[in-house]
């Protein structure tokens, strides 16, 4: 089966080169067609601040890969949580003379210079996820992301709507500005009382025992807002274990969470649609390179918050199962 | 010279009773875990005063659970440290062990107990490999296990991604054997109306077994010897290499037990987990009186170290302190515990 | 005396490391109930000689007999099985471990289920040390808290207890003060009285002469002299050690003498 396919490809390739060989090598109708159909394959590099094995960034990559496949572009991914090292990765993308760079401004100052060099080298830059406020200023042509404060505000409103009066905001990575903004936003619109709880996201038993401890020490807590899907699933266990009646809501999605929402253990999820961030970024670079388009008019394009509730959960289950929601 | 040979024994029989008494008190003081025990009492009293919820039975059960998840690993790690070595791969090895069980069972649609058994073999093999590399190369275990740490962290992610297409294992919640394995590795037991996680009992059992091995078996003698003076141990016929390999496999066994808890408590395993935990295990062992240079320490001490760590970790939550300062308080508490430990040890050495 | 079969007999033994001749044509007999002293300055070949006897190295020339039987040892374990035990100066004990654990290290006494017979080992340790004149009030104290001489003695007592017929003592008095050296020398005499053959390596003729029955003096891998006690006086031995030496060696002697004095003063 596989061999036949390879033979087919070889045959196709031979036919194509024969056809090309017989024609003029420049100008003409062919050249015009090539330009509109995408021209030579683009190489697009994405450099994020993700740590290894992060489910969120996995989905971003899948979105970017899907867009790259559609446009016949080559997609390169690299990441480092350390700002300085992330900057080095951007520099190596510039050195490779890629056609476009997608970057996250989690640590804007560390990346300012190197992004400036990319712009100077006439490589278009698109920013995603974090850094909406500096994106245009640093010379990026577009930004796709979620305003964390806006998302937090949406979560706070929704949490109040499902009847919570005293809630917990579980931060799984201390010192992460985006996570702090979510909790701050939620606190603003929630109305009731909201406290932050720090847990060590790389150690699930510790996450579980910390949330349990908190729920035990304060029985009046009736809402738990977690900031990623894995912590949400653990929070559900903690609620059961501590005998609390708190309702659990979360940011981000995965298939386990969709199941939890269907069975009613998790009330809602605030999705910032990471797939969209990856997909749109590659798409925007392709449009810019092939048609000179820009999106957003210099302002960030928001990919979230999209609130997913029990009903919607059933609908997107299939997508979550394949790891794109 | 002749005078030296004729030198009469300075020990006088008349002082024997007094000496016996002093030796009893000193024997108590010379236990490596005494300082840690006092540190634990200080931390316990402290949180009992500042946090109302801390003394409730169910809160204490939560503290014990937190302590046990560190403590199980600290048992293996402390024995290894007494044997003079470090294992920096211990943290991610837990995740590896959990991933092996979850991925193998799910992908091949096997009963979960088969996955548990395969994970057991694979994890012990990893421990064996750590030990073998150490013995064969003679490089410091710090370097060897740093290398395996990186390799395992990479393999955890790489294999999971390749096999599942995602960065976490698929949920094994509804597979055969889940409920029985959960009963063994992650269930809640009712003890006098308070539900206690089974890991607490695994932990206590491991500490008891490790203590027995250390103090009452030949292997224990060898562990102290290979950590204290490997060349001397080799000179009197102790199988130094085999002992060290065994110690690395002991850590692997603990990693397997912790890994199985991870699988059956959470059903899915995040492939990036576990990084950084290796230092907490070492910290538990050190608080408990293990020397960083090897040859001295105890499993009970490491257990107390884990208990201090669990109390601090959860006590801060019960005390409802400003979470922005969480890590500061964590550090301060650990400093308090270790300083008490140090002061006690100094006193003890002076009294000698 | 020479009709008896010696426990250990070396005849014309030599050893080369590559093209360096470490030891050439050395002969030595060790009888039961005798102390054979091997004297020589640093680099004389003393450690090469004991490594051959202890089974760490194999000799290149000559013969090595144990109780009349020619042997070629593959490892120290082989030598141990023949009753030849070596006590190294710096490798004697594990300092942080209790005395009794050190005493039985590597040859632990066990009861059922692999349990250590702790009582037996404590009692035996105390008794064995007492037999040699060391009265410890507590065999549970870390052996590192004992004096250097006592530590050497524990190691020697251990070798004797576990059936050594020949004891090789590698510079047991080298790092010790006068009093501590005395403790060890007394113990060497005790071992001799119990019928063991002792090979006592030292560079100090004043330590060797009172306890030794035979003296082998080495210099730069060659035999400088091999005498029984009735053939040589302490003065001869001392001058033999110093006489063949160059000025540099003499300076070294003076230096070590002044060190001994300094140690005496600090005690």
Automatic annotation (TrEMBL), chain A:
<dbReference type="InterPro" id="IPR025997">
    <property type="entry name" value="SBP_2_dom"/>
</dbReference>
<dbReference type="Pfam" id="PF13407">
    <property type="entry name" value="Peripla_BP_4"/>
</dbReference>
<feature type="domain" description="Periplasmic binding protein">
    <location>
        <begin position="44"/>
        <end position="288"/>
    </location>
</feature>
<dbReference type="GO" id="GO:0030288">
    <property type="term" value="C:outer membrane-bounded periplasmic space"/>
</dbReference>
<dbReference type="InterPro" id="IPR028082">
    <property type="entry name" value="Peripla_BP_I"/>
</dbReference>
<keyword id="KW-0732">Signal</keyword>
<comment type="similarity">
    <text>Belongs to the bacterial solute-binding protein 2 family.</text>
</comment>
<dbReference type="GO" id="GO:0030246">
    <property type="term" value="F:carbohydrate binding"/>
</dbReference>
<dbReference type="InterPro" id="IPR050555">
    <property type="entry name" value="Bact_Solute-Bind_Prot2"/>
</dbReference>
<protein>
    <submittedName>
        <fullName>Sugar ABC transporter substrate-binding protein</fullName>
    </submittedName>
</protein>
<feature type="signal peptide">
    <location>
        <begin position="1"/>
        <end position="21"/>
    </location>
</feature>
UniProtKB/TrEMBL annotation, chain B:
<keyword id="KW-0812">Transmembrane</keyword>
<feature type="transmembrane region" description="Helical">
    <location>
        <begin position="246"/>
        <end position="267"/>
    </location>
</feature>
<feature type="transmembrane region" description="Helical">
    <location>
        <begin position="63"/>
        <end position="81"/>
    </location>
</feature>
<feature type="transmembrane region" description="Helical">
    <location>
        <begin position="88"/>
        <end position="106"/>
    </location>
</feature>
<feature type="transmembrane region" description="Helical">
    <location>
        <begin position="142"/>
        <end position="159"/>
    </location>
</feature>
<dbReference type="GO" id="GO:0022857">
    <property type="term" value="F:transmembrane transporter activity"/>
</dbReference>
<protein>
    <recommendedName>
        <fullName>Xylose transport system permease protein XylH</fullName>
    </recommendedName>
</protein>
<dbReference type="InterPro" id="IPR001851">
    <property type="entry name" value="ABC_transp_permease"/>
</dbReference>
<dbReference type="Pfam" id="PF02653">
    <property type="entry name" value="BPD_transp_2"/>
</dbReference>
<comment type="function">
    <text>Part of the binding-protein-dependent transport system for D-xylose. Probably responsible for the translocation of the substrate across the membrane.</text>
</comment>
<keyword id="KW-0762">Sugar transport</keyword>
<feature type="transmembrane region" description="Helical">
    <location>
        <begin position="34"/>
        <end position="57"/>
    </location>
</feature>
<keyword id="KW-1133">Transmembrane helix</keyword>
<keyword id="KW-0472">Membrane</keyword>
<feature type="transmembrane region" description="Helical">
    <location>
        <begin position="279"/>
        <end position="309"/>
    </location>
</feature>
<feature type="transmembrane region" description="Helical">
    <location>
        <begin position="112"/>
        <end position="135"/>
    </location>
</feature>
<keyword id="KW-0997">Cell inner membrane</keyword>
<keyword id="KW-1003">Cell membrane</keyword>
<keyword id="KW-0813">Transport</keyword>
<feature type="transmembrane region" description="Helical">
    <location>
        <begin position="325"/>
        <end position="344"/>
    </location>
</feature>
<feature type="transmembrane region" description="Helical">
    <location>
        <begin position="194"/>
        <end position="215"/>
    </location>
</feature>
<dbReference type="GO" id="GO:0005886">
    <property type="term" value="C:plasma membrane"/>
</dbReference>
